[in-house]
Specification:
- The structure holds two protein chains of two kinds.
- Chain A has helices at residues 14-19, 40-49, 69-74, 123-134, 156-163, 204-215, 225-234, 261-266, 272-281; strands at residues 23-27, 30-35, 51-55, 60-65, 89-95, 101-109, 114-118, 139-142, 146-152, 175-180, 183-188, 197-203, 220-222, 285-292, 303-305, 311-321, 326-334, 343-348, 351-358.
- By secondary structure, chain A is an alpha+beta fold.
- Chain A has a domain at 284-358: Elongation Factor Tu (Ef-tu), domain 3.
- The relative contact order of chain A is 0.14.
- The N and C termini of chain B lie far apart (28 Å).
- By secondary structure, chain B is an alpha+beta fold.
- Chain B has a single domain, classed as OB fold (Dihydrolipoamide Acetyltransferase, E2P) (Beta Barrel), CATH 2.40.50.
- In chain B, the strands form two sheets. Chain B has a six-stranded antiparallel sheet. Chain B has a three-stranded antiparallel sheet with strand order 4-6-7.
- Chain B is globular.
- Chain B is 22% helix and 36% strand.
- Classes of the chains: A alpha+beta, B alpha+beta.
- Chain A binds chain B through residues 23, 34-35, 39-41, 44, 226, 229-230, 295-297, 299, 319-320, 322, 327, 349, and chain B through 33-34, 36-37, 39, 55, 57-62.
Chain lengths: 370, 125
């Protein structure tokens, strides 16, 4: 590892991870658990069967205040923030002038302010970009004194509503303050696994107490970044820096569902002209799901060719899907090859192997839509 | 006297006459985590010492398995292709990868014995 462990940041749950026997790795400047004693496969399956508890405190949290906050943020993202109702949350992206994605993020409407969750590796740049982009119209403040826990899986509702009964009334992408065992938390019914679940923003000093309380519930087991990655891959969710970056637009990334009709028409976000042209004409390439025919996983940067061996794209995320019980991947292909069922070849270790373009997700989402 | 030798790449080879049985060490399987895919060489293939002969993949990553010595592949363990998790359970016994006919037994002299390998692993921690 090139990163010196002593320079790595620690989340408020660092000591608990060590106590639980986590295998720790450097990730986005933090010393994070990639797996616990059970291992990635067991943690993945447990999350799909019951509930996994993930420490995602390395992610950035921020609030944006000011009367003009929604309009100010809309100047930086293609998401519809003006139409975001109180106690609702929405997925969107920070775009650049070419329509490239600087980061993807969640924005919640907390009534008199907006609450944001951004990726760990991007957070310093995001906060600076948000401050510069909304200067004079809104006030951006990073929340550095909060942890973020993700409780994910079909048992998440039963567990959390045992500690905070109102949690059961929340629906997917709702967002509200909630007192959990007396700790003032900000809770959204969302996640990054394709399962039902919650993300819980908690004061740093109370995070370990809350995590221990959740882990004491019989359905809950700790899960690390390894399971988080295999779960989100099966759910067809993008990983920033792999599946999306400044070289991909929301249209190419098949994220057009996150742009409302008004915003498609009006534009008014960085790169709107590029996005609008791609929406009208269709993008030259698209993010698709890929299912290898045989058992060999195709990992990021695996070349994709058509049946005749002509290069048509590249895998951006791929590996073994524990629930699928086989290899799964996502990548970009030329638009002509993006139709479901198209036969392609994945060149793994120099050898072309057959695969098909498939619909995402690989494992059906099980969100509580209300 | 033991006929098992170890490499710095965490493979073992157990030699019986001119046939060597090759696998990865328990330390290697533990470092990899859950093994989900194994690719073995074709029967009859000639492999050269310290070159890629097989592939083992965990959820997180793919790793090459290097042949400790040169030789011709005479058997492969289909059981670990069908059930890759066996590698986590029995890396140094039943979850062997392949057997080869040694081209030059003198190549064994550069390899470690069990005690030397254990010291080597201790130095990595």
């Amino acid at each position: 590892m090139s990163e010196d462990r002593s320079t790595l940041a620690r989340t408020p749950l660092h000591a608990l991870h060590l106590e639980l026997g986590a295998k720790m790795v450097p990730f986005a400047g933090y010393h994070m658990p990639v797996q616990f004693a059970a291992g990635i496969l067991a943690e993945h399956h447990h999350t799909r069967r019951a509930a996994g508890l993930f420490d995602v405190s390395h992610m950035g949290q921020a609030v944006i205040a000011g009367a003009d906050r929604a309009a100010a943020v809309e100047a930086l993202v293609p998401g519809d923030i003006l139409a975001l109702a109180p106690e609702r949350m929405r997925y969107t992206q920070l775009t650049d002038a070419r329509g490239g994605i600087l980061d993807d993020l969640m924005i919640g409407n907390a009534g008199d302010h907006l609450f944001l969750v951004v990726n760990a590796a991007c957070k310093a740049a995001d906060i600076a970009h948000l401050k510069a982009g909304t200067a004079g119209r809104a006030e951006v403040t990073e929340l550095t004194d909060r942890a973020l826990l993700a409780l994910q899986g079909p048992a998440a509702e039963a567990v959390l509503s045992r500690l905070a009964p109102e949690a059961a009334d929340m629906v997917f992408m709702s967002f509200r303050p909630l007192s959990i065992i007396g700790i003032p938390c900000l809770v959204s019914r969302s996640g990054y696994t394709g399962e039902d679940g919650y993300e819980i923003s908690v004061p740093a000093g109370r995070a370990e107490a809350l995590a221990r309380r959740l882990l004491a519930e019989p359905e809950v087991a700790p899960a690390g970044l390894g399971a988080r990655d295999s779960l989100r891959l099966e759910a067809g969710l993008c990983l920033y820096g792999s599946d999306i970056d400044t070289g991909t637009t929301p249209v190419e990334a098949a994220l057009t569902w996150s742009i409302s009709r008004r915003r498609r028409t009006e534009g008014g976000f960085p790169g709107a002209a590029v996005v609008q042209r791609q929406l009208a004409e269709g993008p030259a390439r698209l993010r698709v799901g890929l299912r290898p025919v045989d058992k060999a996983p195709a990992r990021a940067h695996t070349p994709i060719t058509d049946a005749e061996g002509r290069p048509i794209g590249e895998v951006t995320s791929g590996g073994f899907g524990p629930t699928v019980n086989g290899p799964v991947a996502m990548g970009y292909v030329e638009a002509a090859h993006a139709h479901t069922g198209t036969a392609v070849m994945l060149v793994v270790r120099g050898a072309p192997r057959p695969a098909h373009v498939v619909d995402l997700p690989f494992v059906p989402h099980r969100y509580r839509k209300g | 006297m033991s006929n098992t030798y170890f490499t710095t790449e965490h493979e073992w080879i157990d030699v019986d006459g001119d046939i060597g049985t090759v696998g990865i060490t328990d330390h290697a399987q533990h470092a990899l985590g859950d093994v989900v895919f194994v690719e073995l060489p074709a029967l009859g293939k000639r492999v050269a010492k310290a070159t890629e002969a097989a592939v083992v993949e965990s959820v997180k990553a793919a790793s090459e398995v290097f042949s400790p010595v040169s030789g011709d592949i005479v058997a492969v363990n289909d059981a670990i292709v069908e059930q890759p998790g066996l590698v986590n359970e029995a890396a140094e016994t039943t979850a062997w990868f392949f057997k080869l006919r040694l081209a030059d037994p003198a190549e064994l002299t550069g390899l470690m014995d069990r005690a030397a390998y254990d010291e080597f692993v201790k130095g990595l921690e």
